Amino acid sequence: MPDVDAARGRRALVLRLAAGPVAFAAVRAAPLVGLAPEAHYAVSAFAWVLAWWVTRPVPWAVTSFLPFVLLPLGAGMSVADVAARYGHVILPHLAGVMLFGHAVAKHGLARRIALGALCLPGVARSGGGLLLAIMTVSAVLSAMVSDLAVAVMMTPIALSIARSVAPGAGRMAAAACLAVLYGTTVGGMATPAGAIYNPVTLALLERLTAYSVTFAQWMSTGVVLTAVHLPLCYGVLKLMLPLEVRAIPDRARFRRELARLGPMGRGEKNVLFVLVVMLVLWILPTFVTIGFLDIWYVAPVAMVLLFALPVDAKRGKATLEAADVQQGIGWNVLFLVLGGMALADVLARVGVTDWLAALLTGNVTAGALPWLAGLATPLLTQLANGPAATVAISTTLYPIADALGYNAAILARIIAGTADAVTLPWASGVVAVTFASGAVGLGTMFRVGVVVTILTSIVVVVLSTILVPALQAFAVG
Question: Hey, which of 61, 121, 147, 189 would disulfide with 184, CB 3.0 to 4.6 Å?
Fold first, then answer.
């Protein structure tokens, strides 16, 4: 049996590895009329990278450096030219946001916030109230901390609380874990820091179109989307997973657990201070014009503060230390995003995006673009991953929107809002954390997730087409 399993594993690896060259060859053989040879080659390389991001024969980060191997061979670019495409402001931004999320988890601030919310008068008096409280706390945290960090922090907390108030209640435990999943998804819409898809769409928007966006402008639509989606996802959970528990008589347990945490430590205070600094710097350009202060400046400031603010000055211990760089940054995802940004830049440079826009302009109407984005993004996310889907769809649709005179910023809002996968455990790290809890079966996750995905996609498309123009949430740069 071990030999059979090993043989199957080797065959599976060979097939996954072959997916890239096959995709490359298929695109190279396709008669892409009007596309220059270098551009045709670049599209083929893009197909190889996407295929390996989907099949994952090697880590995403390794695949992200494949352009260094492929592009100099036929796209008319040197290695130095390719390397220059990887220098992007999104690198320090994502690193800073990830490290901030790690600091929140490391110093226990998330648990304190969750228990504090459950102790509020009128909250968590019933199974449904507990569910709503878990979802709301997850959404609030996710507005400033990455989805994955929130899921890692909140899932065990939610599961522990659900099992303590309802021992043996399977639907209650499953619903509590899904409440974290949907809460992080919904909260991630609120701010550019909430989900990795947000800065990716914004960076590509700035690079490929004439639009730019501030933190406050994104929030003007994001907070509305979050507020609408919270009751929507809560209603779906309540309807599809009827809870076994109605009243929760012993709410004092939450106060006892909160009391056991003791007073807020220096690390928690430092993290709160950094959060306030981030919010002030992000919102300040709304009121004052400061040349250097934009959306990409803030996260590196937060990163420096987290490593500079002491928690124990006598022992030389800071809020974050050297080991936290390895633990707190998701390098695999970070380099996936960098590789995607580099490829998007290459495709624009060699004329692929202009060619694609010209090709599709006569076949796609402006009114169909938001629905195309709202349908294609969640579908591709299930097959690949959120960052890769975001890069691929943004790179394709932004130039088409420009050619049709359509506001590409609306598409940015839609793509970012529908890029979270919530149906299959292998679609994203957040869903994997939920499934790994053991409380949510694959059938339950898929059944509820499909309904949530369909409803949220429709709502995101409709509200984005209304809110972005109405609130003038994006401005031409």
Answer: 147
Nearest to 421 by CA among 433, 430, 411, 434: 430
Tell me the C-alpha distance between 24 and 38, whole Å: 14
DSSP 192: T
Amino acid code (one letter) for 366: A
Q: Which is it for the CA torsion 140, 145, 149, 153, positive or negative?
A: negative
Q: What tokens does 216 get?
A: 């406050």
Note the pLDDT tens digit of each residue in 248-274.
766 677 788 888 888 999 999 999 999
Exposure b/e, 297-311, CB count within 10 A at least 16 = b: bbbebbbebbbebeb
**What is the token pair recorded at 104?**
């929140």
DSSP string computed for 55-111: H-SS-HHHHHTHHHHHHHHHSS--HHHHHHTT--THHHHHHHHHHHHHHHHHTTHHH
Beta-carbon contacts of residue 412 (< 8 Å; ≥ 6 apart): 201, 202, 204, 205, 211, 213, 394, 398, 474
Q: Which of 205, 203, 187 is nearest to 195 (CA)?
A: 187
Q: Count other Cβ atoms within 10 Å, centred on residue 172.
A: 24
- What are the structure tokens assigned to 189, written together? 């819409």
Per-residue pLDDT tens digits for 93-109: 888 888 888 888 888 88
At residue 466, the 3 state secondary structure works out as helix
Question: Do the strands 475-476 and 317-318 form a parallel or antiparallel pair, or are they unpaired?
Answer: unpaired
State the greatest distance between any 2 C-alpha atoms of the chain, in Å, as a whole number. Answer: 71
- Summarised one tens digit per residue, pLDDT across range 159-200 is 888 877 766 667 888 999 999 999 999 998 998 888 888 888
Q: Read off the tokens for 219.
A: 């929030």
The backbone torsions φ and ψ at residue 449, rounded to the nearest 5 degrees and listed phi first, read: -65, -35
What's the CA angle centered on 325, arms 320 and 329, to 5 degrees? 115
Smallest CA-to-CA distance from 337 within 135, 94, 152, 144 is with 94
**3-state class (DSSP) for residue 317:** strand
Q: Which of 99, 138, 100 is nearest to 118 (CA)?
A: 138
- Alpha carbon separation from 127 to 120, 134, 170 (Å, rounded): 15, 11, 13
Q: How far is CA 67 from CA 41, 196, 420, 443, in A?
A: 11, 22, 26, 38
Residues making up the chain, counted from first to last: 477
Q: What is the pTM of this model?
A: 0.75
Please report which helix (H) or strand (E) contains residue 150, including its range.
Answer: helix 147-165
DSSP conformation class of 269: H
- CB-CB contact of 207 with 412 (8 Å): no
Q: How far from the centroid of its chain's Cα atoms is residue 53's Cα?
A: 16
